[in-house]
Specification:
The protein is α/β, with parallel strands linked by helices and about 120 residues long. Helix content is about 25%, strand content about 25%.
């Protein structure tokens, strides 16, 4: 298995741009790697969060969102798996998560859980 590490530009709060960067990397490395790895919170941008829950809950996406389905489809189209960080919303909780999508399916979703990370009362 060949794994590629990608260091592409992201823009805070611009998921469409991040998805386009993921697709750009997949297209340029199609047939050369099995898995492309992107950084922490790549999808929304590393500094996308304001640390205000009422704001940040609108930035986060669920693991079964339309955006994730789009990314699943891209792994089938390009035959390249992807690993990337994103801000996940599950029920009323936010997580700094890492998704692995292979062959059109979310095969792993790791939720970073650190004491004090993204609690509603946390101040930055």
């Amino acid at each position: 298995m060949k794994i590629g590490l990608v260091s592409y530009e992201f823009r805070n709060n611009d998921i469409a741009f991040s998805v386009s960067q993921i697709e750009k990397a997949m297209g340029s490395l199609q047939g050369k790697v099995s898995l492309l790895c992107f950084g922490e919170a790549f999808l929304q941008g590393f500094d996308a969060l304001s640390w205000n829950y009422d704001h940040d809950k609108h930035i986060a996406i669920s693991a079964d969102s339309e955006i994730m389905q789009q990314l699943c489809g891209m792994t089938l189209r390009y035959e390249v798996g992807i690993l990337f960080g994103y801000i996940e919303k599950c029920n009323d909780s936010l997580y700094s998560s890492c998704a692995v999508i292979v062959n059109g399916k979310l095969v792993h979703n790791y939720r970073r859980i650190s004491k004090g990370w993204k609690t509603r009362n946390h101040q930055h």
